[in-house]
Amino acid sequence: MSLSRDDMALAGEFVLGVLDRGERAALERRIQRDPAFAEAVAEWQRHFAGLDASAPELTPSPELWSRIEASRLAFRAERAAPRERVGLAGLWDSLRLWRPLGLAGTLASLILGIALLIRVAAGPEAPQLVAVLSVPDGRAAAVVHAYANGTVQLIPLDTIPVPDGRVLEVWTLQTREQGPVSLARMDRARTIKLELRGLSPAQVGHLFEITLEPQGGSPTGKPTGPILMKGLAATRL
User: Fold this and answer.
1) Are residues 228 and 142 in the same domain?
2) Are residues 132 and 32 in the same domain?
3) Is 236 strand, coil or helix?
4) Beta bridge partners of 152
5) Would residue 104 count as lying in a domain?
6) Domain for residue 139, yes or no?
């Protein structure tokens, strides 16, 4: 029996460890009696295994924890206000971004970083699709968020050295017939909005990548420099 999208997301949250103790205990019991759900959990574990094993261990700074705590308290105050906020009311329970106590090691640092960037740069709206862009050694170096309103954002997770006379160029590949399409050029890694005008909305499986190109961008309209990072869009957790 196939699982619903909500159940697939729940399995992903279980693997990431962002559920509270009661929710996790309930899902552990479900895994024992629901083979389809158990397979979904195993699939998510395989999906994240490479990322968890390859990312360097990082220790969040005290400033990061302070900013997360301040955002968490501010958000709770918003929820307690006597106003109807239909779009925001379920954000805490649907994203679970500020409850990372169950995460371990490098994956904890990565998810915390992404969560903070979503809160600061993208606002309260949850992305429909996420692409994690990895460098050749497997480290996650940037994420692409695609939203229901058509907005697409690139958010760097690491610095990217850019030699003099070169630029970073962001590409997407939606169909092999069309080939790679340039979305943006940057002189340094920064959070930017990506324009998809003339393209279909981002979908699962669409490729995003960043190459190093001459000043002014690729002279051919297609990638010519080395691929610094790339990743495929996937349904958000």
Assistant:
1) yes
2) no
3) coil
4) 146, 194
5) no
6) yes
**Cα dist from 16 to 13, 53, 76, 100, 110, whole Å:** 5, 14, 23, 8, 11
Number of domains making up the chain:
2
d(CA 46, CA 74): 36
State the residue for tokens 């915390």. 112
Place of tokens 């329970």: 93
Please check whether residue 235 is in contact with residue 219, taking contact to mean a CB–CB distance below 8 angstroms: no
Q: Which helix (H) or strand (E) holds 86?
A: helix 86-89
pLDDT for residue 98: 39
Phi/psi zone of residue 216: left (φ > 0), alpha (ψ -120 to 50 degrees), beta?
left
- Helix (H/G/I), strand (E/B), else coil: 18: coil
Is the pTM above the cut of 0.85?
Answer: no
102 belongs to a structural domain: no
Q: State how far Cα 151 lies from the chain centre.
A: 14
Mean pLDDT value of segment 41-54: 67
Q: What is the pLDDT of residues 146-190, one digit of tens each?
A: 888 888 999 988 788 899 999 999 999 988 888 999 999 999 888
Interacting residues of 166 by C-beta distance below 8 A, sequence separation 6+: 212, 213, 214, 215, 225
Per-residue pLDDT band for 212 (boundaries 50, 70, 90) equals: very high
Task: State whether 135 and 236 are in the same domain.
Answer: yes
Boundaries of domain holding 174:
127-237
Q: Do the domain assignments include residue 159?
A: yes
CATH code for position 221: 2.60.40
Same domain? 38 vs 132: no
pLDDT of residue 43: 82
